[in-house]
Design a protein that fits this description.
The protein has 156 residues and is an alpha+beta fold. The chain has one domain: Chemotaxis protein chec. It is built from 5 helices and 8 strands; from the N terminus they run ββαββααββαββα. Strands 1-7-8-4-3-5 form a 6-stranded antiparallel sheet. A two-stranded antiparallel ribbon has the order 2-6. A hairpin with a 4-residue loop joins β7 and β8. α2 packs antiparallel against α3.
Amino acid sequence: MDRFLSSAVNRIDAKGRVSVPAHFRSVLQKRGFSDLYALRALDVAALDVGGPDLLDRYEQRIALEDPFLQTADDMSFFCHGDGAFLKLDQDGRITVSDFIREHTGITTDVAFVGRGHFFQIWEPERFSDYRAEARARLLKLRQAATGMLRPTGEPE
């Protein structure tokens, strides 16, 4: 399996480290990554985390922009200024730094959430709330697509 799937919650140890879930470490190992790139998500209190290929994808997108326009500058500022490298230790742990804590609100536990080519790091309660909101949005879309909603958006 070469995708980040599922989710898991792990506790931060006394030294401020947390174990990346074994199935996520397996994907990283298959891809040959020991350094991780982390970016503060733009729209949620989570970090997007992957190997250097994640940063490469962002940089390829930035390269398509006119370097003299504000968009390219903003994108670079976001991907480079709001990103950091995280180091996996020999036991598959990362240090939960201020970079992580400030954006996510993480205190004692970390939720790891698979997103296919990358994964996210969340504060577990915030993740639970977001998951419920996302499911509700998708259910509403499904109901609208199947005609189960009145034009007002209310269930029939």
